[in-house]
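Bumping my old thread because nobody answered last time. Still need a sequence for this structure:
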């Protein structure tokens, strides 16, 4: 009998509880170890970049400086992948047009392709002419300033990612360069006209992106969603919308992403866009007709028709981002490499292939290891997206860059994309309130309680305020951080 006492129900319950605790402990340990694994892989990549720089430079006098700069550049590239790329993939993932895994793979492939195939064109000596190179005095002062700018911008983007705020990596680099330049040569060294244009883009980029995204969503609602025969309306208008998106991206990539392969002015790029738009429109007519066959006449059915265009737009946005923003981010590293190897820091900087490889691989690793957090933020946590709303965000991103190029305005792809998400959300709030007022007039003397009005908001105000605040302080925060790092570097090196 004593041998069977272990089968007592109370013992079994205790065993179940112990096993439950063990299972919970295993899950907790697994969750806790994931960030450590990511940081470990990131550290290995940073070390790899440093070793690559050491092998390429061999035993040159400034090898140690280039090795440290390569490590900083790799760290910056990881942070771009963790933060910036979310803006391209977030809407498609939030709309359930693709899984998180598929988004990461597509983004990694197209970001790398954009960086290596279409990126690496000549950039100005210091991040878009923010600082006059001649004001830096010596090459050692210039190198210290670029090192400070690179590290400060990477630290700021890392902090923004940690708090869940998508920020512009280009603006971070600009702020870092400005802060280090001021610390090295005073306020007179800064091109304040260029800085004013960049400050204006803080307002212009998200407003333009939001207005265009809201306008496209209004068009879709008025011409497809609110029609009695939604499927017939979709057969008429979806090919047109997909054609417009294809044309916009053709112009976008011609103007911004393919400068290294072919040089085309804005007028030529728009003509190419029109030709591509017409071709894709004609191609999509039979495709949409086939896809819409047997679909029910309701809004949910329409989502099927926007899935593939949305995936294609996310891929193209990633390609264009890789072609442009990677060069901006690794520009300071390329400037350090040139100044260290030739001593010249006043001429335009050509980005070496190995520096672009560090940028491309760093973005892919950063996206894979740390990107899902910001992808969920942009795709799910600002406002609820479906394929039609996400399509509006993607189309607004391409059109806004073309309009900005035509107007000669510097804009941020991050601000445009997130502004598009906000635009869609705020338009839905306005449209919902308008339709409710039209459906039933309020009874005299009665009003909707404040709690109910807050509940009906379709954009999370807390995220809105966090993101806008992060945008506003990006340049000054990166500048202050960079100035401090520069003074430390100069104090160490004498």
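Sorry it took so long. Here it is:
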């Amino acid at each position: 009998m004593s041998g069977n006492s272990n089968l007592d129900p109370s013992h079994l319950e205790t065993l179940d509880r112990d096993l439950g605790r063990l299972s919970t402990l295993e899950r907790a340990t697994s969750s806790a170890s994931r960030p450590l694994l990511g940081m470990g892989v990131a550290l290995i990549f940073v070390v790899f970049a440093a070793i690559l720089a050491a092998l390429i430079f061999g035993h040159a006098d400034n090898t140690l400086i280039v090795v440290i700069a390569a490590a900083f550049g790799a760290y910056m590239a990881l942070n771009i992948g963790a933060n910036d790329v979310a803006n391209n993939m977030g809407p498609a993932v939030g709309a359930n047009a693709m899984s998180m895994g598929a988004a990461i793979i597509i983004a990694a492939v197209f970001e790398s392709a954009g960086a290596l195939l279409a990126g690496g064109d000549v950039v100005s000596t210091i991040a878009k002419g923010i600082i006059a190179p001649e004001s830096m005095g010596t090459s050692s002062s210039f190198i210290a300033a670029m090192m400070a700018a690179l590290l400060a911008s990477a630290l700021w983007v890392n902090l923004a990612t940690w708090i869940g705020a998508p920020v512009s990596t280009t603006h971070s680099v600009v702020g870092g360069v400005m802060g280090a330049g001021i610390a090295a040569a005073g306020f007179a060294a800064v091109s304040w006209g260029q800085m004013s244009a960049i400050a204006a883009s803080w307002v212009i980029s998200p407003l333009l992106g939001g207005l265009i995204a809201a306008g496209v969503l209004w068009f879709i609602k008025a011409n497809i969603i609110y029609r009695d025969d939604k499927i017939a309306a979709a057969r008429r208008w979806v090919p047109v919308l997909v054609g417009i998106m294809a044309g916009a991206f053709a112009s976008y990539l011609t103007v911004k992403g393919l400068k290294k392969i072919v040089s085309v002015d804005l007028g030529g790029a728009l003509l190419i866009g029109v030709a591509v738009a017409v071709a894709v429109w004609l191609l999509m007519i039979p495709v949409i007709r086939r896809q819409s066959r047997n679909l029910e006449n309701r809004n949910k059915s329409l989502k099927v028709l926007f899935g593939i265009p949305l995936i294609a737009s996310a891929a193209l946005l990633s390609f264009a981002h890789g072609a442009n923003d990677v060069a901006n981010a690794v520009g300071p590293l390329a400037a350090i490499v040139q100044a260290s190897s030739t001593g010249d820091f006043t001429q335009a900087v050509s980005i070496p292939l190995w520096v672009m490889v560090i940028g491309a691989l760093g973005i892919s690793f950063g996206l894979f290891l740390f990107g899902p957090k910001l992808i969920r933020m942009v795709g799910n946590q600002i406002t609820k997206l479906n394929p039609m709303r996400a399509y509006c965000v993607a189309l607004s991103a391409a059109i806004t860059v073309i309009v900005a190029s035509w107007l000669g305005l510097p804009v941020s792809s991050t601000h445009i994309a997130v502004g598009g998400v906000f635009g869609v959300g705020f338009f839905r709030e306005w449209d919902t309130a308008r339709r409710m007022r039209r459906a039933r007039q309020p009874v005299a003397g009665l009003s909707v309680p404040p709690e109910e009005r807050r509940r009906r908001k379709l954009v999370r105000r807390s995220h809105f305020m966090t993101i806008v605040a992060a945008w506003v302080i990006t340049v000054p925060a990166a500048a202050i951080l960079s100035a401090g790092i520069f003074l430390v570097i100069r104090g160490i090196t004498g």
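The first helix runs from residue 9 to 57. Let me know if any region looks off to you.
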